[in-house]
Amino acid sequence: xxxxxxDEAADAAYVYISSQDEKREFGRTEPFLDESNGMVNLDFDVxxxxxxxxxxxxxxxxxxxxx
Length: 67
Prior knowledge:
CATH class: Alpha Beta
Number of strands: 5
Oligomer: single chain
CATH architecture: 2-Layer Sandwich
Structural class: mainly beta
Order of helices and strands: EEEEEH
């Protein structure tokens, strides 16, 4: 189950697609959405599997109840 970690001070969030206990070797980051009102970066492991999603600013993408 995905886990959302929010940094309120930075207004950023990271969605872990797999368990943080699973140690996957980081491969690359691909910008998915980069607009003036928000940025989404997709993180992949070395095998090309999606491991996480970064949302900046978090307040643009998440409701207060999601935090």
